[in-house]
Amino acid sequence: MITSEEIKRRLWDGANELRGSMDASRYKDYMLGLMFYKFLSDKTIDTFRITSGMKQNTEQEVIDAYRENYAQYPEPLIEMLSSVLGYYVLPEHLYQTWITDIRSGEFEVQKVTDSLNHFERTIAVTGDSDDFKGLFSSSTLDLTDTALGSNLNERSKNIKELILLFADLNMVALQKGDVLGNAYEYLIGQFAMESGKKAGEFYTPSQVSEVMAQIVAKTKSIETIYDPTVGSGSLLLTVSKHLSEDEKKSLAYYGQEKNTATYNLTRMNLLLHGVRPDKMTINNGDTLTEDWPEDPQRPNEGVQFDAVVMNPPYSVKNWNKSNLKVSDPRFEVAGVLPPDSKGDYAFLLHGLFHLGQQGTMAIVLPHGVLFRGGTEGEIRKRLLEKNYIDTIIGLPDKLFTNTGIPVTVLILKKGRPLGTPVLMIDASKTFIKEGKQNVLQEKDIARIVDTYATRSEEAGYSHLATRDEIIENEYNLNIPRYIESFKEEIPQDVDAHLYGGIPYANITELKVLQESVPTIIKQAWKEVRSGYVELTESVDNLKKKVLTDDHVVQKSKAVEQQLKAYMDKYWELLKTINDVNAIPELREAMLVEIKELLLAFSHIDEYDGYQIIAEVWKDKLTQDTEIIALTDFYTAGRTREPLMVTKGSGKTKRQEQDGWVGSIVSTELIMKRLFAEDVSTIKEKETRLTEIDAELAELVEAAKVEESDEEIALNEALNDKEDAFTIGSVRSLLKEATKGSTDYTLLKKVEDLLNKKTNLNRDVKKLNQELKEATENCIETLTNEEIDDLMQEKWFGSLVSNIMRLIENPLTKELAVLEQLQNRYSETLSTLEDDSKQLEQELEEMMQQLVVGES
After folding, report:
1. Which residues pair with 719 in a beta bridge?
2. Is 362 a residue whose pLDDT tops 90?
3. In whole angstroms, what is the distance from residue 346 CA to residue 331 CA?
4. 580 is a domain residue
5. Is 137 part of any domain?
6. Is the pLDDT of residue 364 over 90?
7. Which EC numbers characterise this protein's activity in its record (predicted)?
8. 144, 147, 151, 155: CA torsion to nearest 10
9. 173 and 221 share a domain?
10. Does residue 768 surpass a pLDDT of 90?
11. Quick check: 125 pLDDT over 60?
12. Do 356 and 443 sit in the same domain of this protein?
């Protein structure tokens, strides 16, 4: 049973191994193109199987029947396939035919070229669907490219290996549940990360797509969606992911892309995600040069869409090569043309022109659009006066692989009520680092989207900017003008430094402690003078009192009780999931509910709880629920699969089986829960091995000390290269040593230790192998109760302790501030003067001793 995560991993590993030195942005066209052709071939075979009434036949039997039918009734068969699919792949041009040729030694690269060319010709002749035209043009998939190999033999070898990478994948089956589409999207993302700056042509980072998509998806009714700089289509697909099933079915996708190879990628990506050809209209063209799509009946209005999403190239120079005028309907609203040196507002105005009156537009642009002057300032002023700018979201820098600059997401709407303020969100400081990139976590995305939905204000994070404020700032929308950065550093207090004591004002700012344990905090200090206090006990003692306080304990119990009900509810739902398509909805429900659960309690960050559940899904539940949905919980629990490992390197590199792993049940957990005594025995022996190694290391070091007893007795037994004793040398020296002598005693000690080490190593190796085999054999005989126990531990084992930490975190954080304040003001002016006097006195005494010594 192969899961989407395994498919992603295998395909990406294969891509890295096969592409050699070819640039990732170029190799993606070959890999993704051939992957898509496999899908077209599988779809052709499957459609023939269904229409001909074949059921439980093998793939080869269906292909053989397809060949026979085509030989006898070519025209009706082609007509039938074309009417259903909008295309067809002939038997001789099937992907499976290539595989057969490879395995029989009859493969030629020219056969692949002929197949792709034939597909292009049939589409051009039939005219059934524009969505398939040009997908495999020679400009996209040039199989004579020397980057694939310097000669025909090398190219043939590399293309064969790439074809075989998809050989055992049933693309039609994988399309159900969007497994195939997700794998395709994953590969696009991986290629983008490898491509660096070139990635900007075809990919929007998933975290930025999620922010934009989740916001746009909140529009009341979305029947049409448009991306004028569509790239790989990821933004369109991410929006659709957040729509209801009914909305998805009727959704019409529109997009335009200038780069032909990327335009092809878009169409493949949409088709693989199950978007019907009649529901997608993708154009290969320059968005700014010529408006698209146009409505001939209303040339000055443009085709209107319910949602518009865009990640255009940033600050494009010389964008106006067609010498467009301000009279162009797209730019009339601005009154001026965007500067020729920066195309940011040209893209924005194009998208806005195509936005319906009740629709939502999301566009990601560099921060400069918020504050640059000149004609851009005039455009910004006009958009604000027209009340089109709804929300501005500041994001961190280094989110994109192709630029390190910080970016902003602008949300625009045409139907905003007059006087509605502009929501500002500063999300530029909430991220984690992964390598060189900054990454928004799921909790960061959820917080942005929630703030947008509730239009709530939060100090240092969000603000509703009124028209008067914006006018006062001369229509400059730079976020720091409206949201002051939250400063965590506590200002220094001069009086406290001079005379001691902690400023009482700082104590009152410890809101969580003041509200959670007011009595403890009040009893923990005394006033030393007006406005200043000192602690009457250590912070460590205070921490113990706070964390064991009845209020904190009762709160912990209440959260734990709610959490238990939460786990019980979702335990049953996770166990019984039987539809892959229902997994995203279940995941979303768990994330929303944990947030609501924690919101009921004060001083717990609900978004930290959200992130904990998001990571449980990422690390465990995503793959497990997919397996359970394809079989059932207990069957999956008793299923084991070969553990394949890579051995050798270069020409000898190969995959070999190294035992078994549970399909969903962890072998580590089986060892821990069902073979605890065996694990304990092995650990005891390993501990003894560590002790013996430490004793031997001490003797090795002692044997290096000149003229020591150990040096005299043991030095000759040392292997200098390994810095260890050699058992053979020790035994030879023992034969020469006198029994009862110091030399004999030391040598005998080393021999005993080495023998014990050898025996223990042998025992540990044997016991580990026996434990491994017992564990692997145990998987298939697990009882339902054992599977329940093991899977609860796997999914929810650390959840309670992780959530409990969210109660303690704000308390310990404020206690740390208290300790910092205590340390900061512990040395006053008087203590420093006393220390200075003490040093002066010590110096004077030393000087007197020096004078006495001279006389």
Report:
1. 724
2. yes
3. 8
4. no
5. yes
6. yes
7. 2.1.1.72
8. -70
9. no
10. yes
11. no
12. yes
Q: How many domains is the chain partitioned into structurally?
A: 4
244 inside domain: yes
Confidence tier at 276 by pLDDT (50, 70, 90): confident
157 with 242, same domain? Answer: no
Record the tokens describing residue 583, joined without a space.
């997994």
User: Containing domain of residue 744, as a range?
Assistant: 674-781
pLDDT (0 to 100) of residue 195? 64
Task: Out of 460, 486, 512, pick the residue that ends a domain.
Answer: 486
Average pLDDT over residues 708-724: 87
Q: Is the pLDDT of residue 722 over 80?
A: no
Q: Does one domain contain both 181 and 310?
A: no
- Residues 109, 95: one domain? yes
- Tell me the pLDDT of the chain averaged across its residues: 89
At 325-352, the pLDDT tens digits run 999 999 999 999 999 999 999 999 999 9
Same domain, 773 and 841: no
Give the C-alpha separation, 666 to 254, whole Å.
45
d(CA 604, CA 595) in angstroms, rounded, equals 10
CATH number of the domain encompassing residue 345:
3.40.50.150
> Which of 512, 549, 563 has the alpha carbon at shortest distance from 803?
563
From residue 698, alpha-carbon distances to 31, 692, 720, 743 in Å are 58, 10, 15, 16
- Residue after which a domain boundary falls, among 199, 227, 258: 199
Q: Helix 799-824 crosses helix 784-796 at what angle (to 10 degrees)?
A: 30
Q: Is residue 548 part of a domain?
A: no
For the stretch 409-450, pLDDT in tens is 999 999 899 889 999 999 999 899 888 888 999 999 999 999
Helix, strand, coil share of the chain (percent; to 5): 60, 10, 30
> Which residue do the tokens 């995503």 mark?
622
The dihedral region occupied by 397, where left means phi > 0, alpha psi between -120 and 50, and beta the remainder, is beta
| 855 has pLDDT over 50 | no
pTM for the full predicted model: 0.86
pLDDT at 231: 87
Copy the structure tokens of residue 63. Answer: 């292909």
Report how far residue 848's alpha carbon sits from residue 347's, in angstroms, rounded to the nearest whole number. Answer: 83
My answer on whether 711 and 851 are in the same domain is: no
Closest CA to 159 of 37, 59, 4: 37
Parallel, antiparallel, or unpaired for β 432-434 and 502-503?
A: unpaired
Q: Which amino acid is at 132?
A: F
679 residue type, one letter: V
**What percent of the chain lies above the pLDDT cut of 70?**
94
CATH number for the domain harbouring residue 111: 1.20.1260.30
Tokens of 508: 């009152």
CA distances from 426 to 431, 441, 480 (A): 12, 15, 8
Categorize the per-residue pLDDT at 192 as very low, low, confident or very high, splitting at 50, 70 and 90: confident
pLDDT of residue 836: 63
Q: Are residues 183 and 294 in the same domain?
A: no
Q: Residue 318: exposed, middle, or buried by beta-carbon count in 10 A (0-12, 13-18, 19+)?
A: exposed
Q: From residue 726, give the alpha-carbon distance in Å to each of 689, 737, 753.
A: 17, 17, 12
Nearest to 167 by CA among 98, 259, 232: 98
- Residues 422, 389: Cα–Cα separation, whole Å: 7
Q: How far is residue 607's CA from residue 442's CA, in Å, rounded to a whole number?
A: 9
| Torsion angle of C-alpha atoms 546, 548, 554, 559, degrees rounded to 10 | 80
DSSP helix/strand/coil, 304? coil
Strands (E) in 427-516, as ranges, are: 432-434, 437-439, 462-465, 502-503
Burial of 246 (0-12, 13-18, 19+ CB in 10 A): exposed
